Amino acid sequence: MSDAMKNAKAASDSAATEAAATAASTATGTETDALLQVRNLKKYFPIRGGVFSRVVANVKAVEEVSMTIRRGEVVGLVGESGSGKTTAGRAILRLIEPTDGEIIFDGVDIAKLPKAKMRDYRKQMQIIFQDPFASLNPRMSVGDIIGEALTIHNLARGKAKEDRVADLLERVGMNAGHMRRYPHEFSGGQRQRIGIARALAVDPKFIVADEPVSALDVSIQAQVVNLLQDLKEELGLTMLFIAHDLGVVEYISDKVVVMYLGRIMEIAPAKELYRNPIHPYTEALLSAVPIPDPTIKRDRIILQGDIPSPINPPSGCVFRTRCPIATEDCKHVVPPLEEVEPGHFKACINR
Fold first, then answer.
1. pLDDT, greater one: 298 or 268
2. Is the distance from CB of 105 to CB of 184 less than 8 angstroms?
3. Which residues are registered as beta bridge partners of 60?
4. How far apart are CA 77 and CA 209, in angstroms?
5. Sign of the C-alpha dihedral, residues 131, 133, 134, 135?
6. Fewest beta carbons less than 10 Å away: which of 84, 194, 197, 308?
7. Phi, psi (deg, nearest 5) at residue 185
8. Does position 6 have pLDDT exceeding 80, yes or no?
């Protein structure tokens, strides 16, 4: 191991908390227009065993995740299945409780707020679920599904509620008369539009779109992405758009965050990331994005092996076991998230 790496390892071992805090501060910045700042977010799922059901291990689904989302910005969160994207999104909304970290929403750290106080934030933070077939109650009419939140938060009742539901349906490209029908009467794309209308019902400030097009046909995917893009511009939505395909997020995201095995590998403005990816994992993901021009050929980067288990992640850089440029030093140092250009961060000691 080089002397530089020995020094880096010693610093990492003796001041891990300080290094994480520094990385979070660098990655999130101090933007005054930030709606959401996530700092050192962790989510562990305990594994219990033995007679007394003691915790014998932890699934480290999210590890030291930090990011900033400004008002009116769409941030794409991408990575392979099992990288922790959905867990991070749900922990930010506190649909699952984070293990540690800060979630500063509109100036308030909501990570440890009592559940009673979280109710005030529920209508400001909504989610669009991945599966349009499983996310809608088959026993409720479309009108009841969309209007349920209006009733829960005492925002509208009676005629006002019905008018609001009709307006939402038309806003997402459906007929107001559909409110009397049931989910099984619609296609997957239409159901996802209903899910979007449900998320918009309470005029949220922030939406987590959890792989909202992955269960849809390619042609329908484009329609839903275009709808979300139109709604973003029309309503000024702030959104975390989760996907496993960098090609999907290209047209809607202002900034892209790349995750692997619970950690952030790279953050950059969308155009910069597609033009100049730095991390080898980002390069591999981009190499799999289809190019519509048949005259252009792209060298495909095939990652060897499967994503490691989050129960026992690799030491040092978690990507090193599949990285084409990994060195011996990568086993010993967790690469910090460093800014290489304005707004462009990477976690790699070899780049």
1. 268
2. no
3. 44
4. 10
5. positive
6. 308
7. -85, 0
8. no
